[in-house]
Amino acid sequence: MVTQNGGGVSSGRWRKRAMGAEEPDLYRDTWVRYLGYANEVGESFRPIVPVAAVWASYGVATAYVTADAIDKGRKAAATHAQDPSRTRRVGVAVADTFVWQSLASVAIPGFTINRLCAASLALLASLTRWPLPVRKWATTALGLAAIPVIITPIDRSVDFLMDSSIRKLYGTEEPPSAP
Predict the structure, then answer these.
(1) Between residues 23 and 119, which one has the greater pLDDT?
(2) Cβ-contact 62, 166 below 8 angstroms
(3) Which of 23, 46, 62, 77 lies 20 to 30 Å from 116 when distance is taken between CA atoms?
(4) Which residues contact 23 (CB under 8 A, 6 or more apart)?
(5) Burial letters 7-44, b for 16+ CB under 10 A, else e
């Protein structure tokens, strides 16, 4: 099974250097990975910030996804420099990373947090007599608390979805993002 594993900072994806030292993947193994979660934070704060701030958070997350896809393409190009199917391998690495990250880091978690926060705000309005600012902050806190809980199930679900569909079209034996 081919997996992308976009997991957090401790995902364990390391790249070997020519001298044998290990180098962390900037987009998977460092704090930069958290930029992919910017839109979930934006969705959590939607009740208390202008909508433009939420859309800006999607811009940050999309920039992260694009940068990671470009990085994986560069790594595939360097790894397969002498391979006659280099162009195809680079294309697969870029496309796989972009689709995986778009689903697992932006679309699905953003939708999940958006709906969770909308439902919680509506439920708090009907079940409590809390003032609106308190309900909005409670909703934001719930959205932020949900982020670490939803990440792993979403990552695994996207792996399964892509392994069962688009990755079957690649026809390669190794993971597309393998350096």
Answers:
(1) 119
(2) no
(3) 62
(4) 14, 15, 16, 17
(5) beeebebebeeeeeeeeebebbbeebbebbbbbbbbbb
Instruction: For the full predicted model, state whether its pTM sits above 0.85.
Output: no
Residue 169: count of CB within 10 angstroms of its CB: 8
Report the C-alpha gap between 158 and 5 in whole angstroms.
9
State the DSSP H helix or E strand holding residue 24, giving kind and residue range, or none if neither.
strand 22-24
| Local structure of 153: helix, strand or coil | helix
Q: Is residue 91 classed exposed, middle or buried when 0-12, 13-18 and 19+ CB atoms within 10 A define those classes?
A: middle
Give, in degrees to the nearest 5, the angle at Cα 87 between 81 and 79. 30
Backbone angles phi, psi at 58, to 5 degrees: -70, -35
Residues 39-90 pLDDT 10s: 999 999 999 999 999 999 999 999 999 999 999 999 999 888 887 878 888 9
Pairing of strands 22-24, 14-16: antiparallel
- Entry field: residues in the chain: 179
Distance CA 172, CA 125 (A): 52
